[in-house]
Amino acid sequence: MTVSSKRFVTKVLASALTVGALSGPVATYAQDFDALINDTIVQIEGLSATQAELHQKLQTAYQEIEKIQGESAEISKAIAEDTRTLKEIEEEIAVLEETIANREQLLEEQARAVQVSNGSANYLNYVASSKSVTDLVGRVDVINRMVSANKDLIQLQIADKEAVETKHAQAVETLEAKEAKQKELETAKVELATQTASQEEAYNQLTNDITLAAAQRDALVAEREQYLEQQRLAYEAQLAQEAAANQASLEASVAAASQATSEAELQAQYNQALAEAQAQDAAIAQAQAEADQAAAEAEQARAYAQQAEAAAQEAEANVGVVQEAAPETLTQESVEVEQVDPEMPWEPVEETEAPVEETEAVVEEVETEQSWTAVTPEEAQAAREEAERAKAAAAQAEEASQVAQANVQSLISFAEQFIGTPYVWGGKEPGGFDCSGYVYYVFQQVYGINVGGWTGEQQNSGSRIGVGEAQAGDLYFWSNGEGAPYHVALATGNGNYLHAVDFGRPLSYGTVSDYFMPSFAVRVNK
């Protein structure tokens, strides 16, 4: 081997070592960024789990407050009824007291009349004037009955008064017990409201923490991509520099080989240079593959970040829509063509004759594949008619698809007007929505249909479908498997949806993800 060939081999080995040295730090620093990004994602997942647990507690507290309000309303109605009853009893007592007073006054007047007119003598005269013993007994009995009747009447009035007073006391006791119960409920309601306010504050703080963590994650992803891009550019520049140096060395080696006096030595030098050039091309190809792998890692990091971003957002299905399938894109493979310097010295080499038989066979095969098959006029006419029918059917399907798409687009456009609306629990008006109130309002306004005012009704407003089947206008539902779903959203297509998120978070877009995956979807009947 000549001195120039040895130098060439030395440069090739140096280039290979340079490629290995460049690939090491890139992978190391990329892994460091991946570790930081993964730590941030773990932090977001932990905060999201805590937020979900707190959300469940808030829902329970709101249900308890609603229950207390219902009980308080019932007790208020009962108190009002007892108050009316008590008033009626008091009026009845007043009437009885007045009647008793009047009768007592009448008895007193009768007693005074007897005293003034010597009533005892009158009774005696009445008895003494009896005409017979039977008459005597009868008159004595009349006098006894009169006296007894007056006494019985007085006792009856007293008993009636005592009964009414007892009834009055019981009514007062019942009223006081209900008022005490109402005060107890109001106290519990205030305590729950205080507890709920504290939990809402913690919930909002968690939301803020998740937002900050997501921003930190995005910054790390962007920094990683920038770092990988810088390393890739430096790597490609180094490869270009090494390739230029190797090319110059190869040209020098070939030039030196052209000056050899012996034809055998010249041929050996040419073969050696060619082998070394091929080895260098292989090293460059390997280095380029490693650069492509680094770029693929950057793309994977971007996809990973997008998936993690979907975890911080949240998630419901309304109307089906015919969507056009996206046409498949054919990718044309590029072919790398090696450029040959026309100025490079060369030596004549043995020519190899191309296999003519193989070439003719390939041409014949291509011509056979491109030949046409003859058809009869009847078959051609039938084919044309079938094509016309297919064209008409396609036009009808396209028209129906456009109408359905326009209807759904009207729904989505109307629903998008309320992005940024604050979350209000139980809200069904543009001033503030909760998740089910928002769905109820947009369907009522756009289609004039009532899908129900809460998730338990809305899940039965159409046919249930899989989450992956949901299209724009359908509803996504989230459920823990017990009772009615706890969240609903309006699907807008491609896995996106609009929903009234939660306390402290305005109405916004969300994306279906593994971190907040709907349980099922519903296509609303119209």
From TrEMBL:
One of its GO terms (biological process) is proteolysis. InterPro entries: NLP_P60_dom, Papain-like_cys_pep_sf, PcsB_CC, Peptidase_C40. Residues 405-526 form the NlpC/P60 domain. Residues 51-113, 161-195, 270-325, 380-407 form a coiled coil. SUPFAM superfamilies: Cysteine proteinases. Keywords: Coiled coil, Hydrolase, Protease, Signal, Thiol protease. GO terms for molecular function: cysteine-type peptidase activity. Residues 1-30 form the signal peptide. Residues 332-357 are annotated as: Disordered. It holds the Pfam family CC_PcsB. Residues 348-357 have a biased composition (Acidic residues). Belongs to the peptidase C40 family. This is NlpC/P60 domain-containing protein.
